[in-house]
Amino acid sequence: MVKLNSCVFISGAGTNLKALIRSSREYNFPIDIKLVVSNKKSAPGLIYAKKFSIPIKIINIKDSLFEIKILREIKKHNIKLICLAGYMKILSNFFIKNFKGKIINIHPSLLPKYKGVNTFSRILKNKERFTGCTVHFVNEKLDSGKIILKKKFKISNNETIESLKKRTQNIEYRAFSEAITKLYRMI
Ligand code: GRF
User: Fold this and answer.
1) Cα-to-centroid distance, 105 and ligand 1 (Å)
2) Is 38 close to ligand 1, i.e. is its CB under 6 Å away?
3) H or E stretch at 174
4) pLDDT tens digits for 75-103?
5) Is 172 in the pocket of ligand 1 (CB under 6 A)?
6) Distance between CA atoms of 120 and 80, rounded to whole angstroms?
7) How far apart are CA 26 and CA 104, in angstroms?
8) Residue 149 is inside which H or E element, if any?
9) Angle between helices 161-186 and 15-24 (to 10 degrees)
10) What is the mean pLDDT of the chain?
């Protein structure tokens, strides 16, 4: 099958990147990861890109031209889909307009609830009974683009921030790949 060239943006551990790489190696998964972008040279997740020989681009966000440089790189690799996987920098309207409808993000809550950061502590504080993760398109408003897929689970009584994070991330790995498969069917 002809796969879409994709790029994954990370800033940290990259466990979602690892899961996406694994999915992308299956013959019927619709994307191939051709580039990994990180705003941090020290992002531990870069190890997965190295292991699978995927080109890496480190972008210093202090550079005023950083988004133009990313766009240039993305064009060079003929990228058709950008997956944000723990990329901790908000993309500008300029960038999003240039790639409209082709950027997706994974967020550790059931959107539209708990947009932004510190989701786990806020979820526990509010004594929610359920939580989960959401894969959505990226638009100009934070965590507000059209939802592609959500996955939900029940919060247990003795849940901590750490356990919630672990449980959420475990469902994220499947959710991200499933959302991409669903997206491809929609195109
Ligand atoms: C994920 O939990 C995702 O929901 C959030 O950032 C985290 C990234 O984790 N956007 P990792 O770097 O993929 O391990």
Assistant:
1) 10
2) no
3) helix 161-186
4) 999 999 999 999 988 899 999 998 889 99
5) yes
6) 32
7) 21
8) strand 147-154
9) 30
10) 95
